[in-house]
Specification:
By secondary structure, the chain is an all-alpha fold. It has a domain of about 60 residues. The chain has three helices and no strands. The chain is elongated and about 60 Å long. The protein starts with a helix and ends with a helix.
Length: about 100
């Protein structure tokens, strides 16, 4: 099973300074920023969906969909915070 971008960044951050390749760090940064953009796009689409579902929250099916969408939105926000923190750390370390 392939490691996630977060796992690969964490592994690289844990490596000795001599083992930190600028090319590898740059590649992970690019991949990480692409992942962050994808998550952000999904988050924005969910926000639009949540708005539409909230208007129909009196319908039990819409209310259930609204709860699921809101939970996914919260999960995406947490993933984005974690990923962005890792990307900042990797960017700072690669700059040294």
């Amino acid at each position: 099973m392939a490691a996630t971008i977060e796992e690969r960044i964490t592994d690289l951050l844990g490596a000795a300074a001599a083992d930190l390749s600028v090319d590898v760090a740059d590649g992970l940064l690019a991949e990480g920023y692409a992942r962050a953009l994808k998550l952000d796009s999904e988050r924005l689409a969910l926000e639009r969906r949540i708005t539409g579902l909230a208007a129909r929250a009196d319908d039990p099916d819409a209310a259930q969909d609204l709860r699921r969408a809101w939970l996914r939105h919260r999960t995406i926000n947490a993933e984005l915070r974690q990923l962005r923190a890792l990307l900042r750390r990797l960017k700072d370390r690669a700059a040294l």
